[in-house]
Amino acid sequence: MNFWRGVPAVLSAFIGIRRHADAQRDQRLTALQIVLTAFVLAGCLAGGLLLLVFWLVG
After folding, report:
1. Which of 4, 33, 45, 47 is the most buried (most CB within 10 A)?
2. How many CA atoms lie within 13 A of 19 on its CB side?
3. Model confidence over 7-57: pLDDT tens digits?
4. How many other CB atoms sit within 10 Å of the CB of residue 44?
5. Cα–Cα distance measured from residue 47 to residue 58, given in angstroms and rounded to the nearest whole number
6. How many domains does one find in the chain?
7. Is the pTM above the cut of 0.90?
8. Residues 19, 24, 28, 33, CA torsion sign
């Protein structure tokens, strides 16, 4: 399972912009790969926000 192939698919789904050829390639990804990638990216976002808050509060 290649994690890096799921990252552009998840990010483009969040933004809503994807070229047709790339969207065709995303159809080969499994649902498990997309869900795991989404959870990892959401965790990174939450962790980054927590670090930002702790840095600002100091």
Report:
1. 33
2. 4
3. 888 888 778 787 877 777 778 888 888 888 899 999 999 999 999 999 999
4. 10
5. 16
6. 1
7. no
8. positive
